[in-house]
Design brief:
The structure is a single chain. The chain is mainly beta. The chain is elongated, with a radius of gyration of 21 Å. The N and C termini lie far apart (about 50 Å). The relative contact order is 0.15.
Length: about 325
């Protein structure tokens, strides 16, 4: 079949447009597959992920009771799970010894997958699924398991992998709540406990993974699922593909925002809304192809303490632009 010069020109133009719209990378923040709770899947195996997600660098001896001590540390006994009333967090899940169970925002529930390994798993020991059972007030159908990279079975609750916190010394301790704005006590239904995120709501449906908040000083800005302000770094790059120049100590102050499902956003421009793999192997979310972060100096939803820091960090508008930066 003959191709006229006009149709060839149109085809070339279409290719050029597609190349431009996908130039910032081919990874997406969405997952087309779903997995039943309790099905096995290899863990993410991202060592060192804690530097941006609240890892505290605890030693192995700091794990609750020591590995295999019977308090539920990886390889130990979990026992019958219980619903415990906490005065600040409401109803939370604890194991047979009364230890608090947590979930990690960088993990996924569909499919169930852990992104806490290596040093991260030392600070946040995975809860063993081997002898876990549902106590009163717990729907046993919500309990499942994943197979981690070392072959051990980790408990999931509502699809979310469950962990302990190494610094919880006594039954009922909740010192891991809100660490790095990524770790939260588990509610009996697998969602965050009611105090999750310092006002994030506890119910995953209470707030989208990324949404827009009207700040009295900055106007419309993007916030994460916990209501924490999202920022961009002037030294990063968006084109032709996302590149983060915030590493090491920088990530401790400016934790990278974990990937967000595209359908779990509200009011944020969809163009360029994607995830990419950082140089350290960790996946990070972008808005309009620019990497986004939260600020460790923001303690509560609505804080904007990171705005303008060093003349390089600025809040993000719904279209991905910097808010209040020179020339914006």
């Amino acid at each position: 079949m003959k191709t006229t010069w006009r149709s060839a020109s149109l085809a070339a133009g279409t290719v050029a447009v597609l190349a431009l719209t996908t130039a910032c990378g081919s990874e997406s923040g969405t997952s087309a597959s779903s997995q039943n709770v309790g099905a096995t899947a290899p863990a993410g195996g991202i060592g060192g992920v804690g530097s941006g997600y609240g890892q505290v660098g605890a030693s192995a001896s700091a794990a609750p009771g020591g590995v295999g001590s019977g308090t539920g540390a990886q390889g130990g006994s979990t026992g019958e799970l219980a619903v415990t009333a906490n005065p600040e967090l409401g109803k939370i899940l604890t194991d047979g010894a009364g230890k608090t169970l947590y979930r990690f925002d960088a993990d996924t529930a569909e499919p169930p997958k852990s992104n806490c390994d290596g040093d991260c798993a030392t600070a946040w020991p995975p809860v063993s699924a081997d002898d876990a059972s549902a106590g009163d007030g717990i729907d046993k159908s919500l309990l499942g398991e994943i197979t981690r990279s070392d072959g051990s079975k980790q408990l999931t609750v509502g699809g979310w992998p469950a962990y302990y916190y190494a610094k919880d010394a006594n039954p009922g301790d909740t010192t891991g709540q809100g660490v790095g704005n990524k770790w939260f006590a588990l509610a009996p239904d697998g969602k965050k406990a009611k105090g999750g995120g310092g006002g994030g709501g506890g119910g995953d449906a209470a707030q989208a993974g990324l949404s827009v908040r009207k700040d009295p000083n900055l106007g419309d800005i993007v916030v994460d699922k916990n209501g924490m302000t999202v920022y961009r770094f002037l030294k990063d790059k968006a084109w032709p593909k996302p590149v983060s120049n915030c590493n090491g100590p920088c990530l401790e102050k400016w934790p990278a925002v974990a990937p967000v499902e595209a359908n779990d956003t509200k009011g944020v421009q969809k163009k360029g809304l994607m995830s990419f793999t950082r140089g350290d192997g960790v996946k990070q979310q972008t808005v309009n192809c620019s990497p986004i972060y939260t600020f460790s100096g923001d303690k509560s939803p609505g804080d904007i303490n990171g705005q303008g820091v060093g003349g390089t960090w600025y809040a993000v508008a719904p279209d991905g632009k910097l808010v209040g930066a020179p020339g914006q």
